[in-house]
Structures are given as C-alpha cells and as structure tokens.
Write a structure and sequence with these properties.
With 116 residues, the protein is of the alpha+beta class. The chain has a single domain, classed as 60s Ribosomal Protein L30, Chain: A, CATH 3.30.1330. Helix content is 22%, strand content 19%. It is built from 2 helices and 6 strands; from the N terminus they run βββαβαββ. The chain has a 3-stranded antiparallel sheet with strand order 1-2-3, with helices on one face. Strands 5-4-6 form a 3-stranded mixed sheet, with helices on one face. A hairpin with a 4-residue loop joins β2 and β3. α1 packs across α2. The chain is globular, with a radius of gyration of 13 Å. GO terms for molecular function: deaminase activity. One of its GO terms (cellular component) is cytosol.
Length: 116
C-alpha cells in the first residue's frame, strides 16, 4: 500500500501531489526547491538555496519516519553547471551518490531541485 506523506515543516506542494509516497519498500520524495515553509523562494547564494532544499527534504523524510542518512539515491537538477561544486559540497548530509542534470527548465525558478 502507498501512503502519501506531507510535512508541516516543508513548503506546501506547488501542485496536486504529496511531498512523498511511503511504501513497504521505500519512500519516494518529490522534488524540493529553495522554498521556505511559507512557500516563498529564498534569496541567496546557490549554497544557501541548496541548504534550504536539504532542510525541506529532511523535513519530508522525518514526516515519513526516516532521515537523510537512509537516502540511497539523489538527483540534482541545475540550470547552470557552474553551481555543481557548491551544490555537491553542501550536500554532505546526504552521503549517497548523486546524479546531476543541467540545462533543465526548473518550475518556480527552483535551482537547485533535489529529488530522492
């Protein structure tokens, strides 16, 4: 059975979906962008925006009774590969291999976009 997960400590989903789906086999998180809990995009460097994405992902995982140290795969979408080093450097709390795509249109100006 699949259970929708939503966190009050992450920004509300920007569409008709949940933050994550929890199954007997794992938790599948929707993309998290640099939006605060009020649903506003934060200003700042790519490192600050990445940190917000990770805080959001952490909140979603905790709502699903999980944590960042249990993540097995992360995909990062960037609009500029110049941001790659800053994003992967700040991603240390997620000690899993990352895949990264760039040249990708990101909704809501969400650069970076983290998915686990």
């Amino acid at each position: 059975m699949a259970t929708p997960i939503n966190s009050h400590d992450a920004p509300p989903p920007v569409g008709p979906y949940s933050h994550a789906i929890k199954t007997a086999h794992g938790i599948y998180c929707s993309g998290q962008i640099h939006m605060n809990v009020e649903g506003k995009l934060i200003d700042g460097s790519i490192a600050e925006k990445t940190a917000q994405c990770i805080r959001n992902l952490k909140a979603v995982l905790e709502a699903a009774d999980s944590s960042l140290d249990k993540v097995v795969k992360t995909t990062i979408f960037l609009s500029d590969m110049a941001h790659f080093e800053a994003c992967t450097g700040i991603s240390k709390p997620i000690s899993t291999p990352h895949s990264c795509s760039f040249g990708y249109y990101l909704d809501e100006g969400g650069d970076p976009d983290y998915r686990s």
